[in-house]
Amino acid sequence: MAKLIFLILTLIPILCTSFSPDKPSDRRILVLVDDFAVKSSHSLYFKSLQSRGFDLDFKLADDPKIALQRYGQYLYDGLVLFSPTIERFGGSIDAAAILDFVDSGHDLIVAADNNASDLIREIATECGVDFDEDYTAMVVDHAGYAVSSTEGDHTLIASDDFIKSDVILGSKKIEAPVLFQGIGHSLNPSNRLVLKVLSASPTAFSANPKSKLTSPPSLLGSSISLVSVIQARNNARILISGSLSMFSNRFFNSGVQKAGSPTKHDKSGNEQFLTELSKWVLHERGHLKAVNVKHHKVGETDEPSIYRINDDLEYSVEIYEWSGTTWEPYVADDVQVQFYMMSPYVLKNLANDKKGHYFTSFKVPDVYGVFQFKVEYNRLGYTSLSLAKQIPVRPFRHNEYERFIPAAYPYYGAAFSMMAGFFVFSAVHLYNK
Amino acid sequence: MATTAVGAAFLLLLLLPFCISISQPISDSHRSAASNLFTEISPSLEDAYEALRVFEILSIEKKPIVTKDTCEKVLENLGSSSSPLKDVFYALKVNGILKCKVDDAVFKDIASRLKATVHDASTLLDIYYSVGSLALIKDQASNVDVLLTDANGVFHSIKALSQSDGRWRYSSDNPDSSTYAAGLALEALGGVISLASSEIDQNKVSIVKIGIVKLFDSIEKYDDGAFYFDEKSVRGSEHQGSLSTTSSVVRGVAAFAAVTSGKINLPGDTILGLAKFFLGIGIPGDAKDFFNQVESLSFFESNRISIPLILSLPETVHSLTKKSQLKVKVNTVLGSDAPPLTVKLVRAFSTGAKNSAIIESKELQYDQESGLHFLDTLPENVDVGTYVFVLEIVLHDSESDKVYATGGQIHVPIYVTGVIKVGSAEIAVLDSDLGNIETHKTLDLAGNDVASLSANHLQKLRLSFQLETPYGRVFKPHQAILKLKHESKIEHIFLVGNTGKKFEITFDFLGLVEKLFYLSGKYDIELTVGDAVMENSFSRLLGHVELDLPEAPEKAARPPPPPVDPYSRYGPKAEIIHLFRAPEKRPPQKLSLVFLGLILLPFIGFLVGLLRLGVSLKNFPGSTIPATFATLFHLGLAAILLLYVLFWLKLDLFTTLKTLGLLGAFTMFFGHRILSYLALTSSKLKSA
Fold it and tell me: Within 13 Å of residue B194, how many CA atoms lie on the same side as its CB?
């Protein structure tokens, strides 16, 4: 019995390390592969995940025993689909289950390839990414290919057109181009959440490298996205790549020289690019939280239940960014607060003390009604912050209007002289003889 | 089943770049990968053995593990009588490489223990480990008696677990047969034969040989000619992947073949296919896979069945401008030198025309120093393009034909690249009906000059240029795309077709107005020409054309909205400052004060008037009580008036009304009193 209790007590901290709002990084990740050979051929990528504390669970994609949830609880915080050819997942997993998984705030990494199955394409389409419908097409770039003495068809591309975002790709510049071999995709223009992280060069196009072009290619130039990310409204993050081999050890270790460029890099940018990207996707970076939202009148400390028009107030909020292990103060100068009723009446930048504390003060507008303090913070790569706090604003009370208006002195004078006259007159009238 | 098929297809895909038909033998990149992979101090002897064995096979100088610690572990395992068979087995294997100082007495103890186990053991794994261990002791300590007296019996007990299809069971009470187990069993049988004190019954041996051939019937094949074994049953404690299964079979067959006389009848192509499978994996990132690959390959290096020779090309992309040679390398799987041989180029053909060979039957020269076979110069008729070269290995010594597997004719795709001559580029604006040239510009496509043109919808725009291979033949590139880009970033893409060497595209704007959405304005003309074999692929701005198109009719399709810049969605918004209502205009204070003075004048006039009239207060009651009433009444009045002043100065309506109620009642009471008294006195006065 004592042993059992001890066991439970020791298990509690292990159980508590799983995903929670306080620790937004993922912990348990399910990796679905077509073949266990991927585990070995892509081991550097998996090792970089494992070394950062992720618990990877490798399963064959058609294993009949795989499941994402049990008794309504999700078993994993993230899903890696390295199974481009899979036509049907084993177990209870299907495209809808994966989308539900994302809808409940979990992360997804999908790698397709030039024989990607309809299932993988369907999942990508649901995420706002449309792979080239031509099944034989690959991304070909006759001007931006990676120089190689053994691959002559220019489908091995050296791409260096990255998204300009330190939060997604890390603050260290990626010097070497990234090797890519696979299919291209385009982004659904109506989807505002999907972002191109790695774009093809203007000379690239998506077509069958073996046959001549008979019609203009459907995907062309820098509108081709090679790697895209999506941050859903619930802050679930998705990475979609058109190439599985770009995650492989071979691409990680191989040197790269972009055609037409004299510099030859000893190591491709794949490892840095994909490792940094995985940090973002798995919520080790760019995850914000806002706490201690406070507002009060200038000179006071307590939060009032109502403001009067023209009051001066102070608003403050603390914002922190998750670094993978701790919450660090978030420093930016573009956090804005809105004082909002139907539309913003006041929109002001918040000042900060570089320790995560953001504050400002402003005068309540001379319009009464039910207002909201709103912080809508949507920045490229960061989780969106959406804070709203309702507060009513009342007009002046009857006794709060100005009393001694100099312009009204003649009226006051008239009234009081009248009253004094009345007093004198009443005495005179009563007692005069 | 589906797993296997999908897995196979997938693995093939992974390997595609490696072995369309050629695999590279193990090279230095493998060695450096091994040094990186086996850096950690291995926790178990099995891992230690795998690391040591890999380093031994690849002959890497640096030793991966602290040998002293490992030796201590070996001694500890061998010394204890209770250590499991598996640990003893791997301890002996490690000892075989490290040569730790183990006493003969220790060996003797183990040998006797193992001999007892061999006879009692019922599961394949127990027999495998004990027979294997005994075989290892035989090598390591020559004076210890390890020979099995009842070798035939042991042989039989292993053989009893075999299945008709060549696979093996792990134990007699386990009905599942496994390919992996077959490998273990064959290795154990090999061990038994080497340990036998008397001759093993040759009939039994030949039955096993037939079993091996049967086992190879179940071998699976990739499209590129790589062979492998896959474990059919996924049931059981651990699932073995195709790599470890294949590697187990290879190890078993090699061990068995090494100790039996006579040849095992396996085709050389199968052996070569297996070698291709192992090489095709590339550099595994997993230590176990790495070991399985390297160890299996070491069996291909020297065995009694067949030694595969791997033909590889350092380069498959040949540049005509650099005049590079076609180089071919022939090695064994681990990269050691092949026996004397000649590489023959049987034929070469263009991928487009399979039947017309451009080169036939040519022998490659051999360069002793670099160990490369090379074709000096490509003949004139090899122009830029993609070709398939069919190569064949011809061994000089006819005897070695039986020893080596060469794989017959090997198809190698070769890309021959070169600089394409681009010339006679011109761009012209034509009259629609007559085709008269209105404006005409010649362009140097290699330069940077741009043309500026203007046209209306009744005119045509014609662009033409010529492409020619280095040998002056027609060249049709994979990508010849013209892009018209409107100012509003709307793009239109056209393919440029050719007639012979001349590429030409004509835009008849009258027919294109609809496609261009009737958008007048400046269009950029961009031309992209590229091909896999074209070294000077280019994409450049040719110029601008100012188009004057008619107004769009009402029903015309609207142009699509231009793509939104994703960065713009995220920036901060402009600040909003609330505009407060302006206070009403008021007169200056002085003016108000002047008016205040004016307002007070009538009151002063009233007081002066009263004094002038000579008012007196003689009617004030004289007696005490009415006088008190009068005083209180006037005090009440004064208090009410004062209250009004206070109401202005500070009080609010509610306090004022409350006080006013009290004061009003008070004043009314005394007012009534004094007024009735005054009325009484005046009526008395009247009546008097």
Answer: 20
The C-alpha atoms of residue B559 and residue B557 are separated, in whole angstroms, by: 6
Residue A246 sits in the same domain as residue A311:
no
Cβ contacts (< 8 Å) between B533 and chain A: which residues? 152
Q: Which residues contact A51 (CB under 8 A, 6 or more apart)?
A: none
Residue A414 pLDDT level (bands cut at 50, 70, 90)? very high
**What CATH fold (topology level) applies to the domain B39-308?**
Glycosyltransferase (1.50.10)
ipTM, two decimals, is 0.77
Are the Cβ atoms of B285 and A345 closer than 8 angstroms? no
Specify whether A377 is located in the same domain as A241.
no
Check whether domain B310-417 has CATH 2.60.40, yes or no: yes
**Is domain B426-554 classified as CATH 2.60.40?**
yes
Minimal CA separation from A326 to chain B, in Å: 26
Does A19 score more than 60 pLDDT? no
Task: Return the number of other C-beta atoms located less than 10 Å from residue B356's C-beta.
Answer: 9
Tell me how far apart the alpha carbons of residues A345 and B141 are, in angstroms, rounded to a whole number: 93
Taking an 8 Å cut-off on Cβ atoms, the answer to whether B283 and A249 are in contact is: yes
Domain end position, chosen among A228, A246, A281: A281
CATH label of the domain that carries residue A252:
3.40.50
Judge contact between A46 and A282, C-beta under 8 A.
Answer: no
pLDDT in tens, A255-302: 898 888 888 899 999 999 999 999 999 998 889 999 999 999 999 899
Residue B657 — very low, low, confident or very high, per pLDDT cuts 50/70/90? very high
Across the interface, whether the CB atoms of B567 and A366 are under 8 A apart is answered: no
At a CB cut-off of 8 Å and minimum separation 6, what does A58 contact?
A31, A33, A36, A39
Is A428–B10 a contact, with Cβ atoms under 8 angstroms apart?
Answer: no
Lowest model confidence (mean pLDDT) among A46-55, A70-79, B153-162, B398-407? B398-407
Domains of chain B, by residue range, sit at: 39-308, 310-417, 426-554, 624-680
Domain that holds residue A424: 403-431
Do A347 and B532 lie within an 8 Å CB cutoff? no
**Residue B273's closest CA among B224, B232, B312, B230?**
B224
- Is the same domain home to A242 and A308? no
The domains spanning B39-308 and B310-417 adopt the same CATH topology: no
| A201 and A336 assigned to the same domain | no
Candidates A142, A399, A410; nearest CB to B532: A142
A227 and A331 co-located in one domain: no
Give dist(CA A262, CA A251) in Å, integer.
Answer: 20
Nearest chain B residue to A145 by CA distance is B532
Q: Please give the pLDDT value at position B26.
A: 80
| Nearest CA distance, B414 vs chain A (angstrom) | 8
Same domain, A111 and A229: yes
* Beta-strand pair B365-367/B317-319: unpaired
Closest A-chain CA to B8: A35
Q: How far is A145 from chain B, CA to nearest CA, in Å? A: 9
Please answer yes or no on whether B634 and A192 come within 8 Å at the CB atom: no
Task: Say if residues B345 and B363 touch (Cβ distance below 8 Å).
Answer: yes
Q: In whole angstroms, what is the distance from residue A224 CA to residue A186 CA?
A: 5
Q: Same structural domain for residues A37 and A186?
A: yes
C-alpha–C-alpha distance, residues B531 and B417, integer Å: 9
CATH number, residue A302: 2.60.40.1930
> Per the structure, how many domains does chain A have?
3
**Which chain B residues are within 8 Å of A363, Cβ to Cβ?**
578, 580
- Segments of B491-619 assigned E as strands: 491-495, 497-499, 502-508, 521-530, 538-548
A36–chain B nearest CA distance, Å: 7
Asked, for residue A312, whether it belongs to a domain, the answer is yes
Judge whether B98 and B71 are in contact, CB under 8 Å: yes
pLDDT of res. A375: 92
